[in-house]
Amino acid sequence: MIMKRYYSTRSLFCLVLILFMAGTKLYSQSSLLDYFPDIDILQSNGPSPGYFVLGTKKFSSDSGSNYIAVIDNYATPLYFRLQNGAAASISTMLEDHIIINEGNPKVFHVYDSLMQVVDTLNTETYSLDGHDFDIDSKDHVLLLGNNRIKMDLTEYGGVSDATIRDKVVQEFDNEGNLLYTWKALDHYQITDANLESPLVDLTASTVDYIHANSLCFDSDTSFLLSARHFDEITKIDRRSGDIIWRLGGKNNVFTFINDSLQFSHQHSIRKLENGNILLFDNGNMHYEQFSSIVEYELDEAALTATLVKRIVHTPRIYADHAGGQELLKNDNYLVYWGMESPSFTEYHPDGSVALEMDFSAHSFSNRIAKSDWNHRMFVTNTDSVNFGMWDGYTESPYLLGLRNNTDSVIVLTGYSTHTPYFYIQDPFPVELPPKAEIQLTIIYYPEGAGTGYIQDIMTINSLSPDLLIAQQVYLEGRKQDEESPEYEIMPDSVNVALDVVPSISFSEPVRMPDGSEITYLNSSELIVFREGGASGTDIAFHSVISTDKKIISITPDELLQEDKTYYIALAAGVEDYSSNSVQPGSVLFSTGETISSYGDNEYTDLAEIFPNPNNGNFSISFKSQAVRSVQLYSSTAILIYSSSGIMDNRLDLSMPGLSRGLYLLIIRDAEGNIISRHKMIIQE
């Protein structure tokens, strides 16, 4: 019963463009978009701001082609172009630049914000290995290179002239001068490899004994190297080339603390600002093969590696190769799962999912970066527009300025939004002359909107036969709203799956009563989750709220137990963005065939239910006058009767059509809190 919310983006995006591009060359434009991946958004729960940069290493669909793309959190493309070859090892580590491994032979191209190549990174003497690179604060560059060596491996059962795939590391200064070349076989042994790995065969004619696939600066005097086939990370002195220490593998010198699993055939090592090591554990040689993200705190004096966290996808994913991660500016984790599905997941620091997308049926991006980088081929004069309160009848305009930063005409072909309440009044296409500015009129007209607060993102596109570029403006506006949101807590039935993810769904966006935002950090404060009922045992859980602030998803830390009754309550009030409050409420559900019944409890205001058992005609008497509500549920948690605003001392009910069996009577106070449950038996 996991709620899976996803949106297919390519078909929606193409439709919006076609609607707004009357008079343009639709044939060539739609042909380009045929290559854009159909991206499914599997979850969206308040991801970090910014844009994802993708570059295909492989494509799987019949109509696929290599491409570079920049997309937002809704998978809307802001840049898209086809490539003659693969685009790999993408990075945004240089401010206002992206770096892509591409070409034939492959090099690292450095692009500026106008998408012009301003620099090239490449090894000397040795061919470039495009797996990874790093740049430090002094603009020094670390690159991997390939080195093939002939070696006699007969003592290991191999051939006398085996080709060894060795690796070199080269460092260049900020002017491109080569500082040194470090050669792996000068410091390692062939037998340092994990000989149990199916990827290592010393009897083959070509032996990939190390498969170094990642490297990064560690300090002013050292760097780290990932030796995938060793299951090892090595720290190396940048001055002497000597090995300082070895973490993992058969030559490990560290004691692992709180981590009996360790890591295997890893990718994408990074040194964090706090000194910790972050890596993607592919898990090839684990007894149970699954991939995860692992962070270690190293004590290099005591030689201990303490596990800080291990993030494992639910359900588990096994990426036998590729994959990686990035720690984002807001401390979210971006994890890309190689050729597996989903394509990538963004996690909050507590391990809950912030965003998840999948385009694995179309293509595979071996590295995905996220930052605030975007092209500046054309730009808007503002990033956001607040239209304020709508007057109730007129169209509210805003003049949006756009500037062309290139030497060529840019033709604006259309735009897209997520709601119908904002639109551009001007007809398309619109020419944006070189180095010039124009204005477009955005209209806000929220008639028919079901909420008093409306947010949207307008994407203004320029689509040509070989390139899509776009810029975005965040829009918001208000309208009069005096209606409280409705909500539903699910599940509220029986035979619920043990791995259920309960949810609270609202009819419109909600926030805290003090006007602050609900996030993954505070959403759990609103919820009570217990076994047995309102006074039962607390269930450990974590929760997130969807990006649109309309769904709170509640994930138990452990599987629920069979044949148990559970209680979920929205225990604290929330409000919509017009300050209309939502009252607390609750439901019961069961992992068995019935919801457990409860005897009379400490609620002393209830004097008597009589008669009980009965034939559907019964009365409830109370000792005092107070505002109450009453609900009657069947044994399968179906609501039979509900009445609110009860103030009398006695309530008489007649339900002659009820089937015989056990029923559950729930009484709530004026705020909606459950204060009493009582079993009632209906007899013929």
Q: Tell me the number of strands.
A: 57
Q: Give the termini separation.
A: 36 Å
Structural class: mainly beta
Number of discrete domains: 4
CATH level-two architecture of the largest domain: 6 Propeller
Q: So how many helices? A: 2
Radius of gyration: 31 Å
Shape: globular
| Mean pLDDT value | 90
Helix content: under 10%
**CATH class descriptor of the largest domain:** Mainly Beta
CATH fold label of the largest domain: Neuraminidase
Q: What does the largest sheet look like?
A: 8 strands, mixed
Beta strand %: over 45%
pLDDT < 50 stretches: 1-30, 598-605
Explain what this protein looks like in three dimensions:
With 684 residues, the protein is an all-beta fold. The protein folds into four domains: 87-112 and 119-337, 6 Propeller (Neuraminidase), CATH 2.120.10; 378-478, Immunoglobulin-like, CATH 2.60.40; 482-596, Sandwich (Immunoglobulin-like), CATH 2.60.40.1220; 598-684, Sandwich (Immunoglobulin-like), CATH 2.60.40. 3% of the residues lie in helices and 46% in strands. The protein is built from two helices and 57 strands. Strands 2, 4, 5, 29, 31, 34, 38 and 39 form an eight-stranded mixed β-sheet that branches. A five-stranded antiparallel β-sheet has the order 1-27-26-25-24, with no helix packed on it. Strands 10, 11, 12, 13 and 14 form a five-stranded mixed β-sheet that branches. A hairpin with a 6-residue loop joins strand 51 (606-610) and strand 52. The chain is globular, with a radius of gyration of 31 Å. The model is unreliable at 1-30 and 598-605 (pLDDT under 50).
